[in-house]
From TrEMBL:
Gene3D superfamilies the UniProt entry points to: Dockerin domain, YVTN repeat-like/Quinoprotein amine dehydrogenase
PROSITE patterns reported in the protein's UniProt record: DOCKERIN, EF_HAND_1
GO function term, MF aspect, one: hydrolase activity, hydrolyzing O-glycosyl compounds
Keyword field contains Glycosyltransferase: no
Protein name: Cadherin-like beta sandwich domain-containing protein
Keywords: Signal
Pfam families xrefs: Cadherin-like (PF12733), Dockerin_1 (PF00404)
A GO BP entry: polysaccharide catabolic process
Xref: InterPro entries: Cadherin-like_domain (IPR025883), Dockerin_1_rpt (IPR002105), Dockerin_dom (IPR016134), Dockerin_dom_sf (IPR036439), EF_Hand_1_Ca_BS (IPR018247), Quinoprotein_ADH-like_sf (IPR011047), WD40/YVTN_repeat-like_dom_sf (IPR015943)
Keyword hit for Signal: yes
Signal peptide limits: 1-28
Amino acid sequence: MKRTRRLMSLLMSLVMMVSLLLATPLAAGATGEAEYAFTVTSNYQELSGNALDLTASSAMKYGKLPTTYTAGGKFDFEYSYSKLAYDSEKYEISKAELTIGDKTYTYTYGDAKATASVLMPYFGTSLITAAPSFYNYNFIDSTELSMSGKVYANVNFHITFAEKSGGGEEPDPEPEPPAAPLLKGIVSTTALPDSEGNTQFDFTEASDGSVCGEATIVMETTNAYTRILPVVDGDTTGIKLAYSYTQNTGAAYSAANQSQTTTVSLGNVQNTDGTVNDITMTATLDSDGDGTVDISQDYVVHVQQMTRLSGLKLTNHSDGSALTYTPVFAAGTTEYKASTLDHAVDVTFTNSDAGQTVYVNGEEIEGSTYAWELSEGENTLVFKAVKGDAFQTEYTLKVANAKNFDLHVSTDPSDAVFTLYDVLGNRIWPDENGAYQIMTLTDYKYNVSKYGYVGQTGTLNLAKAQDQSFTLEKAPESSPLPQLSSDYPSFRASADNNSVVSSKTVNNRDAIEVKWEQQIGDYVSPTSGCIPIIVDDKAYVMSGTTLYMYSTETGEMLKSAEMADEPGFNLMPATYADGMIFLPLNGVIQCMNAETLESLWVYHDPKPNYSHSSPIRYDDGYIYVGFIGTTSTHANFVCLSVTDEDPSNPLEEKVPTWINDTMGGFKWNGAWTNDNYVFVTNFYGQYFYCLDKQTGETVQQVSVQGSQNSCSASSIVYYGGRLYFTTSSHLYSFNLTEDGKLDLENTIEPLALGAQCTGTPVIYNNRFYIGLSSGKTFGVESYAILVGDIDPDTGALSGAYAVPTDGYVQTSGLLSNGYEEETGYVYVYFAANSGKGNIYMIKDKAGMTEADPESGLFYHPAHPQYTLGSVVADSKGNMYFKNDSAWQWCLTRSDLYIDKAEAEGGNAVIDGGSLQSGENHTIQVDPGTESITFRVTPSAGAEVILDGAYTKEKEIQLTDGEAEFKVRLEKGDNTKIYTFRVVSGPVLSNLQFSTSENKNIATFITPSPEFTPGVKTYTAGYSTTASKAYLVPTAKNSTDTVTCTAISGVASKSEGDVITGTSHWSGWTYYLVGFDAAATSARVNFTVTSEDGGQSSEYEVILYRGDTFPVITVDDGVISERTADSAKLNATVNKDGEIYYLIRSAEEAAPTAEEILAGDHKFAVAAGLNTADLTGLAAGKQKLYMALKDAAGETSVVYQVEIPTSRKLGDLNGDGKVTNADVSQLLDKVTAGASVELETGDLNGDGKITNADVSRLLDLVTAGQI
């Protein structure tokens, strides 16, 4: 049987090869005019002595056999060789051999039919057809050969006859048992789960034995694709799958050569008439690895449809009002209930498939609405969608025809708030007489609440009218809450929702100092943290399910607590009030003790699918907040008493004081309250609301202009007796009446912004400040911050000027008036939602009509990312902000900073044109520059140590076109150190290696060595499975251009081909480098060219996968045990090989890689940490240059390591002893302002070289103590 299966496999292979050759393009040298022959031969005459007409039974479509054909021409025929005229009593066909060119395939008579869909995966490009629909016309079996397509070689079909066996021979041996099933079943994510929720469907034995197994899946009629993943029975690997079926268009479809781990997505499977369609899966395996298939099994997946409805709407027939039913409709939920006072209900059905019809109580209805007359009591309606033979989902609706009555309620205390809700949570409002109209024997939920009391909640179900009374108990005594000072207690700085602070924030970008920074949570994830609030000299930040308390002075985490839920990507901070912290979580509000972080209570909104994303408003014992809804579903706006009603239960469930569910949804919409009313806008919808503060009832609803789906994301600001807010397109202002409502008679014209806006305005001195998206507004055709005026008498709004930004400023401003008395100016800070996450500052005063030169970019964070978080401040002037990198910063004002830096010589440019904030800076000079003159102007009262000398100006020498020096500023006990690196020619300021085109989700690869502008060669290792890399270079000078060129190993690119950069919406431009499958590494060059094209520099990048490229890891401690003439090198390598190295003085030029490899200095290394002795060293500073060459001859990049001086303290002349000669030399150097190594000249250890060190050295030498 094994031999038979192999012959069968061989025959299948031949047929497959024929089919492939039929459509294979001409080989090199072939011509379309070549003619080939098709012949049929046999051994019949040789065996029997009689001739045999091989053409007699041929169905050749091009005439009698043999025939000729043109190479590549159409070649279609069928040959029925079982009907040949031969002596079938004596002879039989034993095998057939098909030869195409020099390849022959043998088919044994009686074996199973060899199909193209089975054979094609195993025969490369030797045999294919023009389209999958022709696969069925390429086969060979015991009666017939069929070929369809094109062919480029001679074809011979040889039929072998044999004498029939006599009756006395031994019977054939018992056939081998069939192979065990290869497949257990399938997984289909597009199918409806079974009764246990599984999407795996196991095969069962076919009833007629025609296939190895069968399974049935049920799908909704709306699914366009059927997804199937085979489930292997056991751990067998190497199984190939072919799928075939007839599409609902009538076309045959096949998908061959599919891996057992591949999920296929098959289209047009479901028949339009609802009938079942079958997918045949053929699983094949070469079980012994000899290159031939010896197991082939067919399985059938029956695809049945299920009809469902996609919507259900009930309306009362008499007045057309909506009738609430439970539960909320879902296609898979089949039973519903409702109650109504009406005599009839209109039931409207929404079909998920246009081909379905709706049946009600067994009869088809016309249209989509059924008018249902109700009887007294309970009524039942059974309905379903019907489509041919599809499985039908049957639904049941029960409606009670109820009676109604008035419910009157009293409470003790009398001002406690009673609220009533139906079973879906919709609020039932009382009529003008205070009565609630409810239905008999129907469930209603009620809440009773008041600050200082224990709330009540329960269910009412009454058969007749009954007055109800509720008495609340005083809340038990609890531990006193801490009364803490708060600098910034919520989303906005004060109760008027206006963020104006009097502290002196840093207003000079050169004076910015990072007081501390902390990463709280994960990079670009829902745990990346929220805006902090500042209470009692502590910063409170939510991240994940944890509330953190940090010291504002040091950034040290002082305390943390587990929260009841997480805020997700909610950027709204907590709110502090009256000793409590209120946490806006996902559908949850939690209250904690602000000092201990112990939980006091938790509120779960009854609409749990709606997360929270708005500021929490506190006012006199209550908080007010809205939840997110959708464009079609209203969310809740709630009022909660903050009373700890059960001190023994930290997770007590808070009963809401009231809920208003009629206003849409809320996202960043913060409320403002006065004595009697609550004011808030909605995000979904276009309204501004005034609510009764006691009951939550809508008192006023005003239409505003803005997008329907994101109308307003602003909090309500109170300023000068008016309310202000933004919508997506306008700035609004409203007057208030004497009783505190909106004055709708004396309205103010809203200001059209000309761009999108999501921020809350900050207002001061009748000036407003808001951030805008890209648009055209007040002279700026881009992202901007708008400054405008308010007429204090009329409230008229007008724009003054706009300041451009690099991204949409979706945040709200922070205004400091701390300098106003001294300078007349205020300073306003905004964070831009761009990939850089920059902070912008506006310097402004009343009357200005154009931006001050100091307005604009203020701070660029060290960990750039997008941000929707606003800047906040404390009473000391420290500013706090965060971005999606999960880093939180505290910025403070330093009185020690570089006010001005200048460099001359070689067309020197500092930081691309202007000194940037931070401690690290780059100076670009022309190639060939030998030195520059550097001058620095410090902040008032600061002393300067420039490159080791007390001077504000010094000539800096370059080696190999580079230099590095430090500027030390001192004032009293304060010290600040800046590092300046001088590089030649245009350079990159950064080069990032990413795994994704999207900056927001990218994983970054650290290059070797780590990037610095002056180092021009890098390697970066990607995973062994990586197919591409994303490289992101940034030019130091924004006017320079960057070009990427392929060198080798880049997929689809030849040497010298340019790789074009692609701008991505996430905020960067990347260069996609694909790995060539045949190469171990990919190499590209980045060329940075100056604006005039006169200068350029190149960076070489080597990308590799896995561990294929040699790398040396250079960490701290790479040089140790330094003596006068030796040291130890400690190098970690990833591959066995040899490290080649050269040692040069610190002033000498760096050697080339060729020079290093040509030298004699080398030592063998093994993967891991290696130690080698370096001998013959000079006493002073030196540099070690090294490269790793692995066993395959691949060489790493060149690594540079500094070897520190060996001179001991005070040995200025390097003679190994300390004498008066050293004192004299130190004095000369200090007097001349020359550089001296701290390791030898800093005798008093203060980090600088001065006359104090000369005096100290003289004392030590005189005393013989050194």
